[in-house]
Amino acid sequence: MSIESLVSRARHICEVNGARFTSIREKVFRLLADTHGGIGAYELLDQLKQTEPAAKPATIYRALDFLTEQGFIHKIESSNAFLLCHHFEEHHPAQLLICDRCNHVEELHSTPLQQEFQRLASEKGFLIQRQTIEAHGICQSCLKKEANS
Amino acid sequence: MSIESLVSRARHICEVNGARFTSIREKVFRLLADTHGGIGAYELLDQLKQTEPAAKPATIYRALDFLTEQGFIHKIESSNAFLLCHHFEEHHPAQLLICDRCNHVEELHSTPLQQEFQRLASEKGFLIQRQTIEAHGICQSCLKKEANS
DNA sequence: TGATGAATTGTTACTGAATAGCTTCTGCCC
DNA sequence: GGGCAGAAGCTATTCAGTAACAATTCATCA
Questions:
Q1: Contact state of B120 with A95 under an 8 Å Cβ cutoff
Q2: Which residues share a beta bridge with A137?
Q3: Which of A1, A58, B33, B145 sits in a 20 to 30 Å window from A89, CA-based?
Q4: Cα–Cα dist A108/A120, whole Å
Q5: Buried b (16+ CB within 10 A) or exposed e, B11-33
């Protein structure tokens, strides 16, 4: 999936939503799209400063808030990092597999898993509004590299 | 479950493990035991300072690291808070239901849920080493209060 | 008892994460 | 062009977490 294609899809969604895909927001979006895996807000800020020298933490966090609202990115809670979602046409909860070796993140969308969590919560009378399901470990490709060495 | 009972159980486990349940560690343990729900490291630090004026962030984080190693506490990743676990006799992954109204945290231990997540990961060739499963929302008792008002 | 080595704690300093509050600018609608 | 709302600038601050090194405590073994 090319970056340009992602950008134009995002731009289109913003138009539909009546939201403004401003220059800064687009830049942050592109930086995220360039990143393999998650990236921290301050690293993102450093990169943004190369074209927006005046950028400050608030600049990044406002952009990240916007991108989150539009459903373009996920936050990785267990590592305080942000991740571009490549199928943002509909908001969806995701489960993340985060490789601690290569930083790659695999995004899952298992309905049974969510439903089971939902069911357990309901049993306790708990109303879920937001869920975080993440695993850290080692991805397939890193495991293979390890086996071959 | 009384605090004293928790403390003595913790002390016993430390003895068995050959770990030292020092004064600072016990104080942090007690502060966590006094807390309803999760608590942030710096709030914990403020409380600890009342009896340990020299305490610094490192003091708290070292104690928290120790208590985590012993399996006495969980970290709530989605709110950067720490929570005493009341059944720490065996290390176990937990799922947390965090009420955003009253701050209460319900701890679940669903084996099916973990296994399903495990299975999904395996399908992708991913080896899970640590998992975070949390939900934010509203607990039963807060929902009832709401209904009655 | 006294030496010693490891674990614990003290101390200073720093980086990274996130938000608050207020000002300025920009785009849009009338 | 005037006024309004949303976006971005700016300053400052709080919270979260770690690094590095010095000082201390403690169990143990000679």
A1: yes
A2: A99, B128
A3: A58
A4: 20
A5: eebbeeeeeebeebbbbbbbbbb
Sheet holding A95-99, edge to edge: A105-108, A95-99, A127-138, B127-138, B95-99, B105-108
- pLDDT band at residue A138 using 50, 70 and 90 as cut-offs: very high
- The per-residue pLDDT for A112 is 96
Asked whether the beta carbons of A99 and B121 are under 8 A apart, the reply is no
Cβ distance of A126 and B137 shorter than 8 Å: yes
Of B78, B106, B137, the CB nearest to A77: B78
Find out whether B97 and B108 touch, Cβ atoms under 8 Å: yes
Q: DSSP assignment, residue A39?
A: B
Nearest CB partner across the interface for B143, out of A120, A127, A138? A127
CA→C1' distance for A21 and C18 (Å): 23
Token pair recorded at residue B103: 């701050």
Percent of the residues in chain A that have a pLDDT greater than 70, as a whole number:
100
Closest residue by Cα to residue B73 from B4, B2, B6: B6
Which range has highest mean pLDDT (A81-90, B20-29, B81-90)?
B20-29
Q: How far is the C-alpha of A55 from the C-alpha of A62, rounded, in Å?
A: 11
What is the distance in angstroms measured between the alpha-carbon CA of A37 and the sugar C1' of D3?
45
Q: Is the pLDDT assigned to residue B93 strictly greater than 90?
A: no
Give the list of residues 6+ apart from residue A27 with CB closer than 8 angstroms, or none: A48, A51, A52
What burial class does residue A149 get, using C-beta atoms within 10 Å of its C-beta: 0-12 exposed, 13-18 middle, 19+ buried? exposed
Average pLDDT over residues B21-36: 97
Q: Which residue in chain A is spatially nearest to B126 when comparing CA positions?
A: A139
Q: What is the pLDDT of residues A100-133, one digit of tens each?
A: 999 999 999 999 999 999 999 999 999 999 999 9
Amino acid at B64: L
Q: Which of A105, A17, A111, A6 is nearest to A66 (CA)?
A: A17
